[in-house]
Every structure is written in C-alpha cells, then in structure tokens.
Amino acid sequence: MFKPISPQAITCVSPIPPSVRPSFEVPPRACDCHAHVYGFPPHYEPGGDKRYIPSADSQVQDYVRMLQSLGIQRAVLVQPTIYRDNQVTLDGMDVLRAAGIDARGIALVDPAVDSPEIARLDAAGIRGVRIHLREASVPRGQDARIMKQLDPLIERIGPFGWHLQLHVHGNRLQGLREWVAGLPVPVVLDHFGRVDLKRAAQDPGYEVLLRMLSEQNCWVKLSAVNRFDDPTPPYPSLRSAVQELIAFAPDRLLWGTDWPHSSFKGAMPSDAALLDILAYWTADASVRHRILVANPERLYFSTRTA
C-alpha cells in the first residue's frame, strides 16, 4: 500500500562494494530473499512514502554485481515504498534474469486491486504483497481489526499462490497472531518480526514469534540483522535467539541481505559478512541448504498461478 510523500527525507549511505567471497561454499540456487533496487527520474518518479533518498549505487546493475560476487543465483526483490507503482521492481526482475539470476518479486498494491492486475503482476514474477504496519499508523489493540480490512485482497491473491509479507514491530505480534493463524495464505514476517533479539528471553514479542512459527502458514525472514543492537558482524549478542529460531522451524526460515540497506545509519556491513553470519549461526550445511535453497524454492519458485 503506497503512502503519501514525506516532506523530509534522508540521503542513504552507499552499500559496501562487493570485494570478497563468502567463507563457506554457497549451494547452487541459493536465494537472497529480501532486497530492493532503485531507479531515478525520468524513468522512475518518486511518489510514495519518501522518507529517504536512495544512493546512486543502489540500482539493479549494482545488485547484480553483488549477487555474482556471493555466488547467489536467485533473488526476491521487494518493492520500495518511495515510488508510485511497482515498475522499478518489475524492470529489476527482467535485468536480473538477463544476467542469469532467477528472480521473483513482492509488490505494494492498493487493497482494491483487481484480479486482472494481480494476474499481470503474477505473470511478471510477483509472488506476494507487502503490508507495512507502522507503529504510528494503527492504534495499539486495533491491529487485527484494521488488518481484517485486507481480507478481500487476501481472497483475490489466494488463487495465484501468493503470500502476505508483513513488516511489523514485534510488540504488535500478539495482536495479530490469531488473525495470521486463520489466514488461507502463507504469511512472511520481515526482519525476524522485529522482535528484540538481544533480550529475547525478556521480550514478549519473541515468545509470540515462536508461537506464530508453530503455525504451518507462518514464515520468518532472517534479514536486516545489522539493524538490531549489535554494531558490527557477526552480531554475537543476537546469536542465541537466532539459533533457537533455526532449531525451532528450519523449514520456514528465509535469508536475505536487505540490500542496499536503505536509510541504515550504523556501521555498514559487507554483504559477504551478512552471508557468513548464516554459517556462524549454524555449522550444519544441510540446514543452510534449507534456508538458502529449499525454503525459497517452495515459497517463491514453485508457485503456480490459477
């Protein structure tokens, strides 16, 4: 769902240029399940929630070089909020495919989008819809009531095999848990559900996240790990909580770089370091294969349209 333009925007720091390979052997068909690409006028005009201005080296050609440096052969592009439509993501998928990278996308749509438009996006490789539930946009305790307004949209995307991707703070998971459990489509929670990984044992949202993962329709992205409390890779204070997630539901976890780390203000990590963290979390190559290959295959690349 596209948001109005903000009068103030920050200029993003550039991602670190690719220069090193990961420390472990990346399996064939590994997938970066969360990244954004950007474009600039006159081809791509801003018009969404313009809280930030992307760096000049956050375009799809830059992303291709990064993926090739990591040995990653698949990618899922998530539509940024700063544009009027999904064209930058649709074009980005085409460029990725031309470079030999299998690509899928996650769109932002108006809840009233009709089935012919969904079919058009599906044919282009879109496999889900992202919903931003920002803290200030919905009164606490009203999350599920507001989200139920999406039920007609969910009914329309269901026949296409699409899923719902939620960007929500961990302190709101409790209000959404029952609604999510009853949905007829898979739900993917961005960025660990934004729970407090460093203090997981004291964070009620973390316990809710585990309960949500016990439902077969809920998935979690192991992405944006650099946006938590630890300043630099491998972010050791987060390790225990992430390892618990991996042990709890290895078949419904996805890994993503969150490239190009838009509006990030901390110490910029290299994307090779972010991939290496997966080996820091689990030494089991078969588990890494699930997270990097088998799970994305099921959610994004085996989907069939109606």
What does this structure look like?
Helix content is 33%, strand content 15%. The chain has helices spanning 60-70, 87-98, 115-124, 143-147, 151-157, 173-181, 204-213, 239-248, 271-281, 285-301, and strands at residues 10-11, 31-35, 52-53, 74-78, 102-107, 126-133, 163-168, 187-189, 218-222, 253-255. The strands form two sheets. It has an eight-stranded parallel β-sheet, sandwiched between helices. The two termini are 23 Å apart. It holds the Pfam family Amidohydro_2. Residues 31-300 form the Amidohydrolase-related domain.
Summarize the structure.
The chain is α/β, with parallel strands linked by helices and 306 residues long. The protein is built from 10 helices and 10 strands. The strands form 2 sheets. The chain has an 8-stranded parallel sheet with strand order 2-4-5-6-7-8-9-10, sandwiched between helices. Strands 1-3 form a two-stranded parallel sheet.
The strands making up the biggest β-sheet line up spatially as 2-4-5-6-7-8-9-10
- CATH topology name: TIM Barrel
Question: pLDDT below 50 for ≥5 consecutive residues: which ranges?
Answer: 1-6
CATH class: Alpha Beta
CATH architecture: Alpha-Beta Barrel
Average pLDDT metric: 92
How many helical stretches?
10
The main β sheet shows up as: 8 strands, parallel
Task: Tell me how many strands there are.
Answer: 10
Roughly how many Å is the radius of gyration? 18 Å
Q: Which superfamily, in CATH terms, is the homologous superfamily?
A: Metal-dependent hydrolases
Number of domains: 1
The amount of beta strand, in percent, is: 5-15%
Report how far the terminal alpha carbons are from each other. 23 Å
Inertia-based shape: globular
**In percent, how helical is the residue content?**
25-40%
Order of SSEs, N→C? Answer: EEEHEHEHEHHEHEHEHEHH
Broad structural category? alpha/beta
Organism: Candidimonas nitroreducens
InterPro entries: Amidohydro-rel, Aro_Compnd_Degr_Hydrolases, Metal_Hydrolase
GO molecular function: hydrolase activity
Pfam family, one: Amidohydro_2
